[in-house]
UniProtKB/TrEMBL annotation:
Residues 3-115 form the PIN domain. InterPro entries: PIN-like_dom_sf, PIN_dom. It holds the Pfam family PIN. This is PilT domain-containing protein. It comes from the Bacteria.
Amino acid sequence: MNLVDSCGWLEYFADGDNAGFFVPAITDTANLLVPTLALFEVFKRILQQREENAALQAVAMMQQGAVVDLTADISLSAAKLAVTHKLPMADSVMLATARRYQARLWTQDGDFEGIEGVHYRRKVMG
C-alpha cells in the first residue's frame, strides 16, 4: 500500500520537478490510500491558487484511491509520533495513517527525511 502526502499530491498536480517521483504511487489506485486530511489540504491549496472547479477535479482524482478517515486510534498514534519525531500535526497524521495500514508514505517534505517507512525525495528548489 502507498500513501502520498499533501505536498506530494500538490507537486504532482503542479507538474513540478518531482512530479514523476509520485507517479508510481498515484497511478496504482488499487494500492493507494488517501487520508481525509490530504483531501482537505489539497482542496484548500488549489482553491486558493486557482478556482473551485480545479480543486474539485483534483480531489476527484485523489478519491480514486481508498479514502481513509481520521479515527481516534490514528489521532492518538499521530500525537505520539508528533512527540517522538517532532512533527507538525498534519505530518504526524499522515505518518500514523500510513503505519496503521502498513503503507509506504511518499513525500518530499523534509520533516520526514530518515523516518522508517517513508519514501522521501528532496524537494527541488527552483
